[in-house]
Every structure is written in C-alpha cells, then in structure tokens.
Write a structure and sequence with these properties.
This protein is α/β, with parallel strands linked by helices and about 220 residues long. The protein contains 7 helices and 5 strands; from the N terminus they run E-H-E-H-E-H-H-E-H-E-H-H.
Length: about 220
C-alpha cells in the first residue's frame, strides 16, 4: 500500500496534486494549515474537495505565523498588492519561512501515519517571489526530511518546474473540480481579479483553454 500525505491549501495547484496522487493509487491523508490568512475561504474549499474524494482531511491551527512573521496575507491593516507576480510589490505577500514550518509539521503527521511520501504543490510561477518554493529550498528540505526520523519520508514536488497553466491542463485531464478551489488573496465573497494570485489564475485558465467558473468582482 502506497501511503502519502498531501499538503492542500484549497488552491488550484495543491488540489490538482491531490487528484494526481489519488489517480496514482496512493492512500492519502490530506493536511491544511490555518495561519490566520485573509483568504480562509481556501480551507473550506480544501474540506469540500477532500469530502468529495473521500479523503481524510486535517486542518492545523498555525496562527502563530501571523504573530511571528507578519505579511499582507495575514495582517488586516496591510493591503494586498495588485498586479502580476513578477512585480516587486508582490514580496509583501511572503509569509517568512511558511513552507518550512508547514512541511516540518506535515512530516510529523506523515511519520505518525507511516506514510512514505509527502507531497506539496509548489510550481515555477512561485520562484520569483517565494524563496521557499524554489528548487534549491526543495532539495535541502528533501534532504532534511529524510534525516528527521527512523521512518523515512520522501518529499515530492512534482509541479516544481511546471507553470500554473500546465497544472490546469493536467487538472483538465484528471477531472479536477476547480469550482471547489480558491485563489484570491483578498478575504471577500468574490475573487478580486486584480491581486497577483488572481491574475496568474486567469492566465492559467486561458493557457489551458477552459473557462474559470469562479465569480469575480
């Protein structure tokens, strides 16, 4: 039996990865993190997707990140910047060291479940802004996680050299229900269509040649 833990935010990339791992025959436990992000709607999406697929889902409270590592994604008094991910102002959305913290906790969970694999859905579009989504970070985390316990866990990031459009194309083949995903960094009822995350999502659907069913302001 192939056991795996999949980190799912409720966004497009990690949701596609969950479908991918399921297609590959893994027995999956999914884990999400509530770090007091403005866009908590993504957690509800993660819950709905896991329920739909019959996958056990756990949400871990991690609001200490808001205290220790403030960001435009967590602080109400900070505006979420608009524009493209390539724009320098998008660095305001970095939550310092978020992925290391999340992967450390997800590794503990994987060890407790005797899972051999831990998946997370970073992709090439993250490389410009987020240091903890880059290949060198992944390489060293992979090495550290292998040495964390007697039970060996293999870290996998199969989309790390793909862009978001490639991921949506893959999701189309997998039958991913993207209506149960949330991308916008704003904490509103509808997606803003202007933050870096929204802009990249719209570009991805255009590249994949399919319609985005999300409602935009």
């Amino acid at each position: 039996m192939k056991r795996a833990v999949v980190v799912i935010s409720g966004g497009m990339d990690s949701t596609t990865l969950l479908y991918d791992a399921r297609r590959d025959g893994y027995t999956i436990n999914a884990i999400s993190f509530n770090y007091d992000q403005k866009h908590k709607k993504e957690l509800k999406c993660a819950q709905q997707t896991c329920h739909k697929l019959g996958i056990k889902h756990t949400i871990i409270s991690l609001d200490v990140l808001n205290t220790l590592a403030p960001s435009a994604l967590t602080r109400k008094e900070w505006d979420v910047p608009e524009g493209h991910y390539a724009d320098d102002n998008m660095k305001q959305t970095v939550v310092p060291n978020r992925n290391m913290v999340m992967l450390a906790l997800a590794t503990s969970y994987a060890i407790s479940k005797k899972a051999k694999y831990l998946f997370y859905g970073v992709h090439s579009g993250d490389h410009a802004i987020y240091p903890d989504c880059r290949p060198d970070f992944y390489k060293y985390m992979q090495d550290a996680i292998m040495r964390a316990d007697w039970h060996k866990v293999l870290l996998r990031a199969p989309y790390i050299m793909k862009d978001k459009g490639d991921i949506v194309i893959r999701g189309k083949d997998l039958g991913v229900d993207y209506s149960l995903t949330w991308t916008c960094y704003q904490g509103r009822d509808k997606a803003c269509g202007k933050c870096g995350s929204c802009v990249e999502r719209l570009e991805a659907f255009e590249k994949a040649g399919i319609d985005d069913t999300l409602e935009y302001e």
